[in-house]
Amino acid sequence: MRLLSTALFLCLAAALPAYACGPDTDCVLGDRHYRIAMPEGHDGTTRVPAIVFSHGYRGSAQGVMRNGSLRRMASELGAALIAVKSKDDDWVIPNAPRHMDSDGAEEFAYFDAVLADATRRFAVDDTRVMATGFSAGGMMTWNLACARSDRFAAFAPISGTFWLTPPETCAGPVANVIHIHGDADRTVPLTGRRILQTKQGEVREALDMYGQYGGFGPSHPSTHDALRCEERRNDAEDILDFCLFEGGHSFRTEYVRFAWERFRQAGRL
Hints:
Elements: H1 2-14, E1 27-29, E2 32-37, E3 48-54, H2 61-65, H3 68-76, E4 80-84, H4 105-121, E5 124-134, H5 136-147, E6 154-158, E7 177-182, E8 194-195, E9 198-199, H6 203-214, E10 220-224, E11 227-233, E12 239-245, H7 253-265
Parallel strand pairs: 3-4, 3-5, 5-6, 6-7, 7-12
Antiparallel strand pairs: 1-2, 2-4, 8-9, 10-11, 11-12
């Protein structure tokens, strides 16, 4: 089913004219799109790692690319920045408002197609891709970590988790995850809040589920500048970290850099 869905996306894209795309122009995939910025000075042939960034509620790929700090940071890391876009205002993931019956398959097929298309059009190394996102984009990132761990090297959800409750288990190999969240977040509280007929999930429940799934050991405290972290490892030295910053529902480029550097130092990127 996964291969069929991806093939459908790519067939729809192939039926359209092959216009150039990049940070200021949509890369069209059927009725969806994404944008991409390669590192400054890239020679066009050397394969580079990538950061796939999922926007928050009512966000856009265009809006992500307008974040000059994020663009510069990705370029400094020598990574492509891939800004993905939900079909409408929000990601269609399990238990989300107005998508209670979704199993996430529509979005998972879209991300499969984005990775396939980006590595075909651009010199992106598909073995060194980190998925991240803020708020609703963090929720999308957690769902990817559970359903598409074979397609990404690492995951850094920021201020977002599963809706309602985490899945009972996940698919594929154990992923490397660093979750980052504000300790006084009222928009996506650590314990969640009700919205329409559903509820934002509790961050601890997601971490506990994934800790059990991945066979992670007890946590050890650490401090990294403004982040207070609990670090967990399993026998394979996979990463499951939970990091808090002081404040509410806010995003800083440095959170993405922190996660990237941690994964890189561990040999995951």
